[in-house]
Amino acid sequence: MSISTKYNPAETEDKWYSYWLSKKFFHSEPDEREPYTIVIPPPNVTGVLHMGHMLNNTIQDVLIRKARMQGKNACWVPGTDHASIATEAKVVAMLKEQGINKKDLSREEFLKYAWEWKEKYGGIILEQLKKLGASCDWDRTRFTMEEDLSEAVIDSFIHLYKKGWIYRGIRMVNWDPAGKTAVSDEEVIRKEVNQKLYYIRYTIAGDKTSDSGLQTPDYLVIATTRPETIMADAAICINPNDERFTHLKGKKVFVPLVNHEIPVIEDEYVDIEFGTGCLKVTPAHDLNDYELGVKHNLPVTDILNDDGTLNELAVILVGEDRFVARKKIAKMLEEAGHLEKVEDYKSQVGFSERTDAAIEPKLSMQWFVKMKEMAQPALDDVLNGEVNLIPNKFENTYRHWMENVRDWNISRQLWWGQRIPAWYDDKGNWVVAKTKDEALEEFWKKKHLDQSCSDAEKTGFKHQLEPFLRQDEDVMDTWFSSWLWPISVFDGFKDPNNKDINYYYPTNDLVTAPEILFFWVARMIMAGHEFMGKKPFTNVYLTGIVRDKLGRKMSKSLGNSPDPIGLIEKYGADAVRVGMLMSSPAGNDLMFDESYCEQGRNFASKIWNAFRLVKGWEVDANLENPNKQAISWFENRFNAALVEIEDNFKQYRLSEALMTTYKLVWDDFCAWYLEMVKPAYQQPIDAESYQATVNFFEQIIKLLHPNMPFITEELWHDDLFAARGEMDCCIVAEFPKGGGIDEQLLKDAEVIKTVVAEIRNVRNQKQISPKEALPLSLKVNSEIDYEKWLNIVFKLANVSQAEIVNDKIVGATAFMAGKDEFFIPLTENVDVEAERERLNADLVYLQGFLKSVESKLNNERFVQNAKPEIIANERNKKADAEAKIKIIEESLAILG
């Protein structure tokens, strides 16, 4: 089979992805093999592929492909999250374009539109993941609002309610005026904002007589960033220890513009140093003010509508947006003489992660989950190593959050999502039940708990109540469904003892972003213990944030985020995968640059061209094998690299594992091994060397497959190898297993590579043609058997002859490799001055190096704390440097 001169990613990717799907290589069913399971962090159903998804899913695919090749039953479960706030916003926007207002629709009508939108757009991101090569078990695709998963959410709510861990109450919440819903603390993004600090005069009730006998109004000044909320002020608070305001104790003041009279209260909460030392207390619009209000029994006046406009209780500027009202009220205060001054001020403001609207603290009736008891086993799992956070630098922040966990507000004022299973009668009484019939039964039990009644009476009661019964309007927080994900995707609620949940749970690895460590990962661990009695996974690989080369987080607003599909079309999926993984160590941000994808494409081209080279060799079965040492070296080099790669995988250093593979293929195999064994131009190669090379290439292809699935599958089926059956694919080929390693042989090989490199350097410096063979003399100070290696030196450096000598050769160009000295007697006179300059430069470098090594070894703290092998390595470095310095000094002495 001929092979094209260039690798065509698009052609290859479509062909092999379709083939893998048709042969069900991604699909998993429980069997006798060891399971290896990953559940995908379900992307929002509104989402399209961005660079963060690319990184996250590339890592998952590398892990799942490697496990599959290692003979494990690999199962990667895909799916999407219904994303209540984001999806509802998308549907509302779509309806608006059609001239339809959500307010004019019933809940059922709106949900019909929402499901239509989901069916049309909801699968885009999963289709895009296929372009990346994601080998998910697509037959197992789940959606957090499909019937069975929604039922699991309802069942878990009822379970926790019956346990006393879910309650309903009025609390201060984070309100998103754009989404018109409460959001959790974790969905609030804090940003530093340039604001204004307004100094407002509040008139003190009662008159004050001046020294002249005239009556003048007295006032105090309050500094605030939110003048639009003064109409909701319930009190002015002073610190009882602040002597400046002793005269205000027991007084009242008037709120500017609306002239409400409010009391002056005292509390040590007030910071004497901030602003003017006085605080306006607005219980309905600030969490700390609310707590002060409860403490001092203050009235609560909420002057904002759900959309952030001022309501009738504000009295003035009714219907105005809060930020428009801020500017207008500042002007009104100034005109009325109540504004003393305005200053620039920077402060942290919370914004909704979903809509980017400024969060409004708001008192609201909400549903909450008690978290303290559930948090403890989830904390213990991480502290005792049952669940590993990778990297472990996140353990302290995880511990702090779990030890200070707050109750979880799980209700959202939306229509898209799982509806709260609470039912109300006409008097506001309520019960929690799965269905309306069950709710009627609960109301009956509540009213007739200790009474014996006839069936007719019971039926009559239900019949009478049924028309008044209404279900809670709110839906549950999206995270209240996704915290069940590792259980619900295997139907662990629907059928708690089914074969899938028993086989695949707990899963192995979770790959996700650190920013959802608490409100998804931690909660999944809690749910695992609460509903399954054990953890949901063992390892949590936390990726970094994908940033541009300037260090900025990639975002649409900055315009610095490339289109992932565009990158795949330009460079190929394998190249983009390599580019993403090149510099993405766990937990550290990835400074992405498109040049990484170009590097990945160059790597694919290198592999392709190396394959074409080997495929083009002609074989002569009668030839002897002159490459035994080269073959032995690469076999050992491959085994050594495999140990390093496996160690990196065990520690989830996927970037380092790829770099080791990259260097093995590009440097060791292509740049060195193939050059060592390739036949002379238009000459055949011996059969033994050829077969060894083909075998090495097959191992390399398998090693590369998890990172570069498409090009490896394409080459795997080439007729260079033995004929493949239709199921004999690289995706299920056995991942390479290492053999013995001759460490001395590898060390000797590094010396030989140095010899070749130095001879090439001499050619460059002296401008000697590569075609001109050079003589070489060796003064051997080591134990290396050069007889085994000289044919490689002859071939790669074009050496005509080699002679072992006992003394330095005066007038020859000299260099060192390891402890050994090499001389090239040249026909023209050597430039003694240039040679002396070169040797002196080497001497200065080695003396500096020796000094740094000795400094380490003379450091008692280093010697006491360092591992024995590290100390031994430093001592070897010292001995090696001393030997080289001695040789250079001898060479300089000969030159005079």
From TrEMBL:
Record-given protein name: Valine--tRNA ligase
Entry keyword annotation includes Protein biosynthesis: yes
Record remark on domains: ValRS has two distinct active sites: one for aminoacylation and one for editing. The misactivated threonine is translocated from the active site to the editing site.
All residue ranges annotated as the Aminoacyl-tRNA synthetase class Ia domain in the record: 15-592
Motif 'KMSKS' region: where in chain: 553-557
Domain of life: Bacteria
EC number(s) per entry: 6.1.1.9
GO cellular component: cytosol
Subunit comment: Monomer.
Alphabetized CDD domains for the sequence: Anticodon_Ia_Val, ValRS_core
Valyl-tRNA synthetase tRNA-binding arm domain mapped to chain residues: 831-895
EC category name: ligase
Source species of the chain: Pedobacter soli
Binding of ATP, residues: 556
Methionyl/Valyl/Leucyl/Isoleucyl-tRNA synthetase anticodon-binding domain ranges (all copies): 633-775
Gene Ontology MF annotations: aminoacyl-tRNA deacylase activity; ATP binding; valine-tRNA ligase activity
Function, as annotated: Catalyzes the attachment of valine to tRNA(Val). As ValRS can inadvertently accommodate and process structurally similar amino acids such as threonine, to avoid such errors, it has a 'posttransfer' editing activity that hydrolyzes mischarged Thr-tRNA(Val) in a tRNA-dependent manner.
GO biological process terms held by the UniProt record: valyl-tRNA aminoacylation
Pfam family, one: tRNA-synt_1
Family note: Belongs to the class-I aminoacyl-tRNA synthetase family. ValS type 1 subfamily.
